[in-house]
Amino acid sequence: MPTSKVLVIVPFPMSSDDVASRAAQRDSVRLDSGVELAYVPVRVAPGSYDSYADYALADVGIVDAGLDAQRLGYDAVCVDTMSDSGVAALRSLLEIPVVGTARAAYCLALELGERFGVLAMWSVWFPMYKKIVTEQGLADRCVAMRAPEIQPDNRKLLAGREAEVLPHLLESAKRCVDEDGAEVIVLGSTTMHTAHAYLRAHLNVPVVNPGPASYRFAQMSMELGLAHSRRAYRGPRQSPAETIRLMADAVGRRDP
Length: 256
Fold this sequence. Notes:
By secondary structure, this protein is of the alpha/beta class. The chain is 41% helix and 14% strand.
């Protein structure tokens, strides 16, 4: 079977060990043997995804990381963040499928129930979710956003903190279900993927792990020969690629 290559854009500059922690997401999903995932970190990123100013910088970094995906022989792109940063811009620049992790997760949630809740580490991320559900017309389907207010570690994830963090995540998830009426829980970050098995075992509703959901959407798009509509994502009359590269190069040359 020919290999299909998927570029998974990691939304922070990272060491190979930290990238491996995120790449462990692939162990929780069944993909065809011919699907190859390549995890590539961005060169440019905000320190965290805490504000609309951070989202703007994230867009630049993720577009920079994905600009050459098609030329380099990738068959699809997944953006490994629930902010879906850069997704719309990359769709306007590439012909191959570009999968937004939040979009994939919410679509899957609505195949499993009528109403979903987003479980986060802390409420600082809530505007990020509100932005996407509003853009996608899903605000009435997202009935809950809850978090135990534990500061996340975007690189080490939950390593060494499982005993402390997991019970608090479970408590917040149960409140989404019991108090808010959520029928499906969506993890609010790909950095939370190590909590998925625990939450799935302790909740009586489906729990969507967003990163693996995006990989399945990418595989499905490739198998069906589908990509985004040019009516929805028109290409630019003048490509911004050179400008974006110059911006990323300038940031990369700065002293730490």
